[in-house]
């Protein structure tokens, strides 16, 4: 018995959960013979969902233990994360722990897939997706994408992503909510284009809390407020990566690499 376990960071914003749901349903459609399930890697989100809405989504170890109990022998764990940062490391640790279990509580095979961005080739592929997606906006607007950001060494992937974007488009820039590049880097890059209007969009699987508050919120430190303060006309496109058809196909490719 084989199963695919999709592991998302998770979101407590109901309107944003559709992006995760889309990746789950695309995976189910691509692998009709396999059981497909979902876990959230964020304990904070899982506990908040349970407390506030009585929604229970398992953690990866919980899901794996249950799958073992149900008799699954092969599990393909596919992260829905953008970079291989701290959340990925934790997922790797739990996957390896289950892989090391021998006897009846272990699986014949349990393996972990890779996130969206692990090297410069991945960044080039993603840059193509972003350039096509945002190329549809009128040419008088720049695009500022907000990634999550990380102080983990994998946080360098965002700078790599900017390099990849710069090779294919002159008006799409990436910054992060919690790391480098920062808002000032994105602003400086936009200033050089001399464009006076900007589209704000998340570069995260879901358009959750960060997208709604840090990016498009009306607090004084949101990118929306900061761009307005700098004289920009601002428009928002709160669509998570999980909702872009091309990113969803790329995700399904990741699962395919893992399952074959
Ligand atoms: Co965060």
Please outline what is shown here.
With 260 residues, the chain is an alpha/beta fold.
Give me the secondary-structure topology.
Layout: E1 2-8, H1 17-30, E2 35-40, H2 43-53, H3 60-69, E3 74-79, H4 86-99, E4 109-112, H5 120-134, E5 141-147, H6 157-168, E6 172-176, H7 183-193, E7 197-202, H8 209-215, H9 223-229, E8 233-236, H10 245-259
Parallel strand pairs: 1-2, 1-3, 3-4, 5-6, 5-7, 7-8
The protein binds cobalt (II) ion (CO).
Characterise the protein shown here.
- This protein is α/β, with parallel strands linked by helices.
- The chain folds into 2 domains: 130 residues, Rossmann fold; 121 residues, 3-Layer(aba) Sandwich (Rossmann fold), CATH 3.40.50.
- The protein has 10 helices and 8 strands.
- A 4-stranded parallel β-sheet has the order 2-1-3-4, sandwiched between helices. A 4-stranded parallel β-sheet has the order 6-5-7-8, with helices on both faces.
- Helix 1 packs across helix 10 and helix 5 packs across helix 6.
- It binds cobalt (II) ion.
Number of spatially distinct domains: 2
DSSP helix fraction: 40-55%
Which stretches of 5+ consecutive residues score pLDDT under 50?
none
CATH first level of the largest domain:
Alpha Beta
β-sheet strand percentage: 15-25%
Distance between the termini: 15 Å
CATH topology of the largest domain: Rossmann fold
The global form is elongated
State the secondary-structure class.
alpha/beta
- H and E string: EHEHHEHEHEHEHEHHEH
């Amino acid at each position: 018995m084989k199963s695919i376990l999709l592991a998302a960071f998770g979101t407590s914003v109901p309107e944003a959960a559709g992006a995760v749901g889309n990746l789950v349903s695309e995976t189910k459609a691509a692998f009709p013979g396999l059981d497909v399930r979902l876990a959230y890697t964020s304990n904070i989100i899982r506990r908040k969902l349970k407390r506030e809405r009585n929604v229970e989504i398992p953690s990866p170890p919980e899901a794996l233990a249950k799958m073992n109990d149900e008799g699954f022998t092969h599990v393909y764990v596919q992260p829905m994360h953008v970079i291989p940062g701290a959340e990925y490391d934790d997922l790797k640790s739990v996957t390896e722990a289950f892989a090391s279990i021998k006897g009846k509580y272990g699986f014949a095979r349990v393996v972990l897939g890779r996130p969206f961005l692990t090297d410069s080739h991945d960044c080039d592929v993603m840059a193509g997706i972003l350039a096509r997606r945002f190329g549809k906006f009128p040419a008088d607007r720049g695009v500022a994408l907000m990634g999550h950001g990380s102080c983990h060494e994998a946080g360098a992937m965002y700078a790599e992503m900017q390099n990849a974007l710069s090779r294919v488009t002159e008006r799409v820039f990436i910054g992060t909510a919690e790391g480098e590049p920062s808002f000032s880097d994105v602003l400086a890059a936009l200033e050089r284009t001399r464009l006076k209007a900007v589209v704000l969009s998340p570069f995260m699987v879901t358009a959750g809390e960060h997208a709604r508050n840090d990016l498009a919120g009306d607090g004084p430190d949101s990118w929306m407020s900061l761009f307005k303060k700098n004289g920009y006309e601002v428009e928002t496109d709160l669509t998570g990566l999980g909702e872009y058809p091309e990113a969803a196909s790329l995700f399904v490719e990741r699962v395919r690499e893992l399952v074959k």
